[in-house]
Every structure is written in structure tokens, then in C-alpha cells.
Amino acid sequence: GFWGLVNNAGVSTFGETGWLSMEKYEKMADVNLLGSIRTTLAFLPLLRKYKGRIVFMSSIIAYFALGNGIYSMTKAAIEKFCDALRLEMKKFGVQVSIIQPGNYARSTKIQPPVSAEEIWNELSEEEKAVYNKEYVEERANFFNSILREGSTNGDEVVDAMVDALTSPAPKARYMVAKLKEKALVFVCALFPTVVMDSVLSYALSK
């Protein structure tokens, strides 16, 4: 029979909201969100028949945005899709799990280093009038520093995927992240939005 489906495909990019074209938004949604939905729908009859497992690759970035809101948007959306699917599939004996990795940029190479020059050259004249080149360079350097801090131990995420596929009682969510990343999610989930905005604004100011 058909036992498990892992929706792992994903792409990422960097940029503030007005810096990105509609084409980039469409590509990000097509791969990260609609791609997983298309695959799930194609295999759903077999997964129901054999009481299989469905695993989705999300991210802790579903809880907050820090320079890549476009990626965060798709991960938040796929989590809501999973939440609905998980409840609907219970009656068929199909288990649905979400993997929420922290920063594994150095393991996956999902996001290449950001070039401030390339970003600046792609900005519209309207955006260039609002943001000077120094600001773009500061944001690019900040984001690149986050990428450099990414874990190289991708096996931790793979282990979570295997557990979701083979455990007699798989978790609905597997958060695979550093302690400080989990703390950030905790603050985001439990504290008022104004607190989280203050924390992220402070991080960006540094």
C-alpha cells in the first residue's frame, strides 16, 4: 500500500513587502503552498485507503516575520491547511504532522546569501525614493548574519520527519529549533502583539 507523503519542497527569498514583485509572490505561493496542496490532493485517495501519514514542512517563521515576510506568509498558510486536513483525516485513520524547523539555512541552502546591490537594482523608482541604498545594505547584512547562524545538523529535521512517518503516535507538530528560537515562538504565541513587535523591532534595530 501507500504509506506516507512528505511535502518538503520549498523556496525562499528576502525583501521588505514593497521590494518584491507580484511575480515573486506568485512563485512563492505556487511552490510553498499550492505545490503541497496539489501533491496532497493527488495522493489523498491512496492515503485514505491505506490509513497513511502526511507530513508537511513548515517553519517557526510561520509565527513571525524577520526580513522575509513572503516566506513567513506561505508557511503560516500551509499550517492552517494542515490544521483543517488533520481534523478531517482523523475519521479515516490518516495522521497529519507538521515539521517546524528553526534556522537550518546552512544545511538546506534554501536561501542564498543576499546581495544588497542586486536588491537595489531591482527596486522600482518609487521604492528607491523611500529607501536609500545604505538602508538596503544594512538589512541585507542583517539577514546574511542570520543565515550564517543557521545549523548545519539537518539530520535533526530528518529524524522528526521519520518519527512522523513511523511512530505509533506521531505528534501534530514537531518543533526542531534552538532554545532561543523556541523562546521567540513562545513570546509570539502567548504575549500581546505589541510585545512581539517590540522584540522584533529591537532585533532589527541591531
From TrEMBL:
SUPFAM superfamilies from the UniProt entry: NAD(P)-binding Rossmann-fold domains
InterPro entries the record matches: NAD(P)-bd_dom_sf, SDR_fam
Keywords: Membrane, Transmembrane, Transmembrane helix
Pfam family name, one: adh_short
Transmembrane segment boundaries: 54-71, 183-204
Annotated PANTHER family: D-BETA-HYDROXYBUTYRATE DEHYDROGENASE, MITOCHONDRIAL, SHORT-CHAIN DEHYDROGENASE/REDUCTASE FAMILY 9C
Family stated for the protein in its record: Belongs to the short-chain dehydrogenases/reductases (SDR) family.
Name used for this protein in its record: BDH protein
Organism, as annotated: Hemiprocne comata
